[in-house]
Amino acid sequence: MNECTVEIPAEEKKKREVKTGICYKCGSTEHRLKQCTVKGDSFAYATCFICGKQGHWSRLCPDNPNGLYPNGGCCNECGSIQHFKRDCPTLLKKQGKIDGSYLLEFSLFFRN
After folding, report:
1. Contact at 8 Å (CB) between 55 and 44?
2. Which pLDDT score is estimated for 99?
3. What are the helix and strand counts (H, E) for the chain?
4. CA–CA separation, 38 vs 61, rounded Å?
């Protein structure tokens, strides 16, 4: 198990508060994201936990040093911040669920 915990200052936690009760694609309060019929990948009404700006999620924030773990943490299998343990290519390879070519493709995709 990897140690990936990072302490987040109180002012950062306040900035990361989530707006609820709104569709992140169209801004409607009548439905949530899963029920939205607007096509596309734009989340114009989402507020980022990291920078506090509207228009993207924290996992896609250019200012996010923690990847998918906005409050700190990492994949417990390999230490990456780019995926969750359930999606870890190292673990999947150990389990025989993917081959080496997929692992190479996956690592190139998430390369910084």
Report:
1. yes
2. 62
3. 3, 0
4. 22
Which tokens hold the place of 36? 């939205």
Query: What one-character DSSP code corresponds to residue 6?
Result: -
Token look-up 């998918």 returns 68
Question: What pLDDT score does 39 carry?
Answer: 86
Distance CA 23, CA 31 (A): 6
96 vs 111, more confident: 96
Domains of the chain: 8-63 (4.10.60), 74-112 (no CATH)
Q: Amino acid letter at 108?
A: L
For residues 81 and 59, give the distance between their C-alpha atoms in angstroms, rounded to a whole number.
10
CA distances from 39 to 3, 26, 28, 33, 60 (A): 39, 10, 14, 11, 19
pTM of the model: 0.44
